[in-house]
Amino acid sequence: MAAVSRRHARLYVTVDLVILTIREEGLHVLLVERGKEPYQGQLALPGGFLREGENLPDAARRELAEETGLDDARLHLEQVATYGEPGRDPRDHVVTVAYLAIAPRLPVPIAGSDARHARWEPVDRVDRLAFDHNDIFADALERARSKLEHSTLATVFCAETFTIGELRRVYEAVWGGPVDARNFNRKVTGTDGFVVPTGETRRSVPGRPAALYRAGPAKTLYPPMLRTNIGMDTD
Fold this sequence. Notes:
With 235 residues, the protein is α+β, with helices and mostly antiparallel strands. It has four helices and nine strands. The chain has helices at 56-68, 133-150, 164-175, 181-189, and strands at residues 12-23, 26-34, 43-44, 47-49, 76-83, 94-102, 115-122, 195-202, 210-215. The N and C termini lie far apart (52 Å). The relative contact order is 0.16.
């Protein structure tokens, strides 16, 4: 183990955002093209430096607006982890606090601040990002996938009202694979407080109209809806 100096470190703090939404039935993440060094021209997660007197959630919301033009009114925002490896930013010793943000049907972003372009990228096509953003992205994506097993977070990806089929497609997009429709319907409607029927229906394709639901009051799922068995559970 390398010796550590007894001098106090001079640190800068940033926030980085992993913003997820579903577009064309696939899970997408928002990326920006950096407009300045370091890593000019390379794709990165949106984010920036904490300002004096600013708390972390407010900094995350500000960066969201400045770099993308997105309104955070419907965003689910939660802190994922803190990254402080020396050398992760060539400018100085920079510690970043990463946030996971989720909202339904987010628009095409408008880049601003030090971002040259902003775009939605399918999560399975994310390649080399600037800084240590690949690690941050992977951790936040796994957080989202895991939370779908143990919480009602999937409803955040949906509009205010939705069908069970639309909710199932959220799971399929986030988990990256098919989910057994009959099993899923039984588990969702059988879990107290997961979804609440509105009493209305929607006809989107020829056939029987689908019942509409809204998010229920429950925050956790018990028993959990595990990725390993949702498509094969036959009990």
